[in-house]
Write a structure and sequence with these properties.
binds magnesium ion, 0% strand, mainly alpha, Hypothetical protein af1432
């Protein structure tokens, strides 16, 4: 590892855990956070949760688990280049999607709709809830008891109303300050990962084509370079060679632009970072190209009629599950029933949010189909 920058997050100067614990003799505080995340139940469930394509649609599509690994890989590379803390960056990347519902954004929107009168549902907040409360593994506390820096990194967005109830990690939304650079860069790594793997998965599924993608400058410029260098390349290699160059362009631009921003500010501590404007950024030109790519994907992939059909089914499943459990919480497994005595709607939302795609489909069948065994 390179020398850590003075403004990087430092495990020895961590703001700390919610419950005090003796330090590990072998691992720094952020390594320990990462290890706890990997051993959590919510992390294992990421294997059967999806973003765009539902898990049973094919074995080759990304799941939230492979997505999180790709984010971690991209984020660590950026952290190392900028002399930031790789272990913290990796841990934030691996934890960033833990609170996602089944069925990607369709599932999240449906659950948020169901929770409208009961405080709403935000997946970022839910990721924090998972690591702070919902994992039941340790004898002395609920949750994973992660460091402040990790929890701060998970909470990417938060409404002001929720921020006020969160205490320490919510404070920055009230003060309008920023998180560590490790957290900032992981947000970008997330975006770089999903835009580019959605191109790959979109092409693989046949929902979008290379011809269509040529209207996207970021894709087309790299495609032409690959074609010129390898005129007879088969399609799969052509796509991969193009996508890997796109990722490289985005990562290099992000590192260069961010390094300049950091240099201009000359921060001397992580506190300077928190008080400064967001320093991790693309250049204006690449930011524009990246936006055009996102717009293309929204229009042509995320709103493709075949994706819409799956999303509509997902919304129906989530809403019907919510209604049935909300009207009769005794239909939930006993461990969820306990929380229902305190806040019924939240207990139902926690149960549904924790489901994988296939578990939600099965649970729906068990509750709505007479022939299905219980
Ligand atoms: Mg993500």
């Amino acid at each position: 590892m390179n020398t850590l920058a003075v403004y990087a997050a430092n495990p020895e100067a961590t703001i700390g855990r919610r419950f005090e614990e003796p330090a590990s003799s072998l691992r720094n505080a952020f390594q320990r956070d990462r290890d706890r995340i990997i051993h959590s139940t919510a992390f294992r469930r990421l294997e059967y949760k999806t973003q765009v394509f539902v898990n049973h649609e094919g074995d080759l599509f990304r799941t939230r688990l492979t997505h999180s690994l790709e984010v971690a890989q991209i984020a660590r590379g950026i952290a190392r280049t900028l002399n930031l803390h790789e272990d913290l960056t990796e841990a934030i990347a691996l934890a960033h999607d833990l609170g996602h519902t089944p069925f990607g954004h369709a599932g999240q929107d449906a659950l948020n709709d169901c929770m409208r009168d009961y405080g709403g549902f935000e997946h970022n907040l839910q990721s924090l809830r998972v690591v702070d409360q919902l994992e039941h593994r340790y004898a002395e506390f609920d949750g994973l008891n992660l460091t402040f820096e990790l929890r701060e990194g998970i909470l990417k967005h938060c409404s002001l109303k929720n921020a006020k109830q969160l205490g320490d990690v919510g404070q920055r939304f009230i003060d309008k300050t920023n998180p560590s650079l490790e957290a900032q860069l992981t947000n970008f790594a997330d975006e770089i990962a999903y835009n580019n793997h959605d191109i790959d998965d979109g092409l693989r599924s046949g929902l979008i084509t290379i011809e269509q993608l040529q209207e996207v400058a970021l894709f087309n410029s790299q495609l032409q370079i690959v074609k010129a260098k390898h005129p007879k390349l088969e399609q799969r290699r052509l796509i991969h060679e193009t996508v890997r160059r796109m990722i490289n362009i985005l990562v290099v631009d992000l590192c260069e632009t961010s390094a300049q921003n950091i240099q201009k500010l000359a921060p001397e501590s992580i506190q300077d970072i928190r008080n400064a404007p967001y320093l991790i950024a693309f250049s204006a030109e690449i930011s524009q190209q990246n936006l055009a790519l996102k717009q293309f994907l929204r229009k042509n992939l995320y709103h493709h009629y075949k994706v819409n059909r799956m999303s509509a089914k997902a919304v129906r499943i989530v809403k019907e599950l919510f209604q049935v459990f909300f009207s009769d919480p005794s239909l939930m497994p006993p461990e969820h029933l306990q929380n229902a005595n305190i806040d019924k709607a939240r207990a139902v939302a926690d149960y549904i949010a924790g489901m994988t795609d296939r578990f939600a489909i099965r649970e729906h069948r068990r509750l709505f189909t007479v022939e299905e065994s219980l």
